[in-house]
């Protein structure tokens, strides 16, 4: 099984944003050393506790400090951008870091309504126009438009020898069908969805139309996991991100991911206790043996090519160790 890393670049309560971004780079380096297939970083806007608003900037930094691991956006939010500009940016990355660049495409706002309005005057219209925007982006990446097209003489330079690989990211049948109709690989965000992922992925497989000769349906399943030497320790570590999620739902959590001690001191009401238990059901928490077992079960259930793991902890050391333990058990 291929394993990969999704990084949301979380800021802990004792960190600056720069320290969090430096830890993201260190995570990519360690992922490369451990044999993870790819490292993707997400785009968020004005969300307290998440440091990366510009994946393309971080990918330049990470690419320059790694050598072989594939790197990409998970996701870059297409409705905010003209397809031509994204094609230029990711072609530039693919020129600098040959045969290593993925462009994961999403359509979520990635922030508050106020941040969305600050970024775009017509975000909802661009979400509606996503099919056209995806097609235009693919044509720029292929450097091929029909002769009578208005952009037939425009190239998204520099043109790399090996183009960035486009992916569609999502949590719904709509995103699965979009990926399938465009002949693109698909990443399903199980960690942020209550939908029937197996059914959605099957829809993608059944609807897939090859974009180029030899293309086949390819799926990544993205899950949330925390691994430690013992399950008890993993439960302790995971409490930080779980309590942080509860705080964010209340409009709090501006100080970032709380420490284990801070999380333990948070008094849960009955509703929050139930919410926390539901969130845990959508995570993998345990020692290496338990995590391996659950990841293998997910692969069998979803029939995926690759599993991508997102891990949020207060301590960067705990996060690195979680990925290390999983790699030692499975890679």
UniProtKB/TrEMBL annotation:
EC number per UniProt: 1.-.-.-
GO MF terms held by the record: oxidoreductase activity
Organism whose genome encodes this protein: Niallia oryzisoli
Luciferase-like domain location: 1-301
Pfam family, one: Bac_luciferase
Record key words, sorted: Oxidoreductase
Descriptive protein name: LLM class flavin-dependent oxidoreductase
Family, per entry: To bacterial alkanal monooxygenase alpha and beta chains.
Superkingdom field: Bacteria
């Amino acid at each position: 099984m291929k394993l990969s890393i999704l990084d949301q670049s979380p800021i802990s309560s004792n960190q600056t944003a720069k320290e969090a971004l430096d830890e993201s780079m260190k995570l990519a380096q360690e992922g490369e050393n451990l044999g993870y297939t790819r490292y993707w970083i997400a785009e968020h806007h004005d969300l307290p506790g998440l440091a990366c608003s510009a994946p393309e900037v971080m990918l330049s930094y990470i690419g320059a400090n790694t050598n072989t691991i594939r790197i990409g956006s998970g996701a870059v939010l297409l409705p905010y951008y003209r397809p031509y500009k994204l094609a230029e940016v990711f072609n530039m990355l693919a020129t600098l870091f040959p045969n290593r660049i993925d462009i994961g495409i999403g359509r979520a706002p990635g922030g508050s309504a106020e941040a969305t309005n600050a970024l775009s005057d017509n975000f909802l219209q661009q979400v509606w126009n996503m099919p056209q925007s995806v097609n235009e982006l693919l044509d720029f990446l292929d450097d091929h438009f029909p002769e009578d097209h208005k952009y037939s003489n425009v190239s998204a330079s520099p043109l790399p020898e090996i183009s960035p690989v486009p992916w569609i990211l999502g949590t719904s049948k709509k995103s699965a069908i979009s990926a399938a109709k465009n002949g693109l690989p698909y990443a399903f965000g199980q960690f942020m969805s209550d939908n029937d992922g197996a059914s959605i992925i099957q829809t993608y497989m059944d609807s897939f139309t090859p974009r180029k000769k030899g293309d086949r349906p390819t799926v990544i399943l993205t899950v949330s996991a925390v691994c430690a030497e013992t399950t008890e320790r993993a439960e302790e570590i995971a409490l930080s991100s779980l309590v942080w999620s509860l705080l964010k739902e209340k409009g709090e959590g501006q100080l970032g991911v709380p420490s284990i001690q801070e999380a333990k001191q948070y008094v849960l009401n009955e509703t929050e206790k139930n919410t926390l238990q539901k969130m845990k059901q959508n995570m993998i928490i345990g020692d290496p043996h338990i995590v391996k077992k659950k990841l293998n079960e997910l692969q069998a259930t979803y029939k995926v090519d690759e599993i991508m793991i997102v891990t949020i902890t207060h301590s960067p050391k705990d996060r690195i160790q979680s990925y290390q333990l999983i790699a030692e058990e499975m890679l």
